[in-house]
Amino acid sequence: MRKIFLLAFLFSLSTVAQVKDSVNLDNPNATIYTHIYYLQQDSYQPEKSAKTIYGLSEKEAIATAIKIKRVLDGKGLQIDFNKIPNNPDYNDTIGYSKFYKYVLFPERMPLISVEKRGNYWYYSAETVDKIDMLYEAVFPWYIDRIQEVIPGYGHKKFLGVEVWQYAALIVLLLLTILIYYIARRIAFFILQRILYRFIKEHAPSINKALKKLAHPISLLVALALVDKIFPSLQFSLEVNKWFLLSINIAATVFWIYVFLKLAKVLVILYEAFTETTDSKLDDQLVPILGNFLTGLIVVVGVLKIITLFGVNPTAVIAGASIGGLAIAFASQDTVKNLIGTVMIFTDKPFHIGDWVQAGEVVGTVEEVGFRSTRVRAADTSIYQIPNSKLSEMVINNSGLRLYRRYNTQLGIRYDTPPELIEAFVKGVREIILAHPDTKSDNYIVEFNGFGDSALLIMMNMYLKDLAWATEQKSRHQIHMAIVKLAKELGVDFAFPSTTVMIEQFPEKNAIDLKYNTDSARIDTVLEQQIANFKTNIGDASKE
C-alpha cells in the first residue's frame, strides 16, 4: 500500500513539473507572452523563451530571443497584450489565401512578427533572418566595446541609472548640439544654391521662406541622431518608450513645419505664374490653394502623431471616412457648393473684375470662395451667390467680350443745312479715329433717319478696353469732343418740341435762321477741333 501511495505521489509531482515546464504556443498572444515573460528578471528562464524560435539550436534560439526583446526595449516598443489576438487561426490577409501571421508593430518595426507553423506559433523566419541586422542597427558594434572599458564605478547607480549612462547622455547632448549647427550651415548653403540655380527669377519673394527651412531641417538631423544613438544607452523600457515617443512627436511637428514652408514656396511660385496669365480667376485660386495645402499637411501630420500612440491608422482613416460621409449627408448644400466651386475654376466662365449678369444679379465679380461668389453691384451693394447655383445659371459675361460696343443716335435740328450735316458727320468720324481706345477699322457714323423732332445721325463704334470704368471715361471724352465740335460748327442738338412756322401773317415775318455754311470756315473748324481733341486725349493719357 505504501509503494502504491509513493508511486502516486511521484507521478503527481512529475505531472506538476511537466505542466510547470510547458510553454504555450497555441496563438499569437500566447507565443509573444511566453517570449517576454520568461525573459523578465523575476521569471528569467531563457530556455523557455527560446521555444518561440523555430529551427535553431537551443543556444542560438536563446540568443535570438534575447536580441528580439532587446531590440523592442531599445526602441521603446512596449507590448500591449490586450491588442494581440488569441485566435489560433488568426489571418491578417484578405481573400481566399490563408497566411497566418501577426506583426507586432506594423508602423515602427514591421520586420518583427510571429507566424503559424503546423499547430503552433513561432517568430517568423523573416524575423529570425533579420534580427542580427536589427540588433546592430539599434546597438552598434561599439556599444559592447564601451561596456568592456567602463570601470567598476561607472556601473554604480544613482536614482536607478548607472553613472556611465549619465556621462553618455551628456556626450550625446553635446554631440547633438554640434551636429545641429553643422547641419544648419550645410542646409542653408544647399538651399541657397537651389535658390540661385532653379528659381533665380523669383528669389526675392521666396528667399525668406527658403531660409527658414534650414532651421527645422537641421533639427530633424539632430533628432535623427538622438533616435539612432539613444537606444544604445540601454535605459529601461519605460524611459525609452516615453523619450523616443517624444522624439518622434517632435520630428513629426518639424516635418509638418517643413512641408508647410514648402507649400508656401509652391504657392508663391504659382502666384508668380498667375501674374503672367491674362486670367484673373487664377489669382483667386492662390489663397484657396494655400489653404488646401495647409489643411492637408496638418491633417496628415495629426494622423501621423495619432499613430505614434499606437492607434491603428487604418481605423482612423476608416473612422474619418465614415464621419466624412455622415457630415456630407448632413451638409449636402455645402458639398454642392464645393463641387460648384470646382466647376467654376474648371470652366472659368468669368474672371475676377468681370462685369457679369447672373439671373437678376448684375455687377462686378470680386471674389470666388469655397462656398460662394461675391458680386458687387453698381450701387456698391454685395451679392453672395452660392456656387452650386451660380454654376447652373446662364451667365452673361461682359468682361469676355472682344470689344465694348457703343451705339447711340445724335439728333440735330431739322433746319440744319446739308453742308453742316456733312461737316458734322465728318468731324464725328475724325474724333472716333483720333481716340486711342476705339477700334478704328470698325465704326459707323451716318445720317440714317428722320425723327419726330430731329435729324438722326447713328454713331456705332467699339471700345478696346473691357473695363466698365474705362468705357465710361472714353465715352465722356468722345461726347465732350462732339459737343465742342457742334458748338464751333453752329450745329444745334434737337430736343422734343413742336415748332409752328408762320409763313404769311400781317405785320409778321417768318423765322429766319442763319447758318454759316462757308466751306473754308467749316474746314478750319474741323481741323482745329480735331487737333484740340488729340491734344486733350494725349494729356489725359499721361495723367
TrEMBL record:
Start and end residues of each Mechanosensitive ion channel MscS C-terminal domain: 408-492
Domain Mechanosensitive ion channel MscS: 333-397
The UniProt record lists the keyword Membrane: yes
Keywords: Cell membrane, Membrane, Signal, Transmembrane, Transmembrane helix
Cellular compartment(s): Cell membrane
InterPro entries named among the record's database cross-references: LSM_dom_sf (IPR010920), MS_channel_1st (IPR049142), MS_channel_C (IPR049278), MscS_beta-dom_sf (IPR023408), MscS_channel_2nd (IPR006685), MscS_channel_C_sf (IPR011066), MscS_channel_TM-2 (IPR011014), YnaI-like (IPR045042)
Family under the similarity heading: Belongs to the MscS (TC 1.A.23) family.
Any matching Pfam family: MS_channel_2nd
Membrane topology note: Multi-pass membrane protein
Domain of life: Bacteria
Keyword hit for Transmembrane: yes
Signal peptide: 1-19
Mechanosensitive ion channel transmembrane helices 2/3 domain residues: 296-332
Name by which UniProt lists this protein: Mechanosensitive ion channel family protein
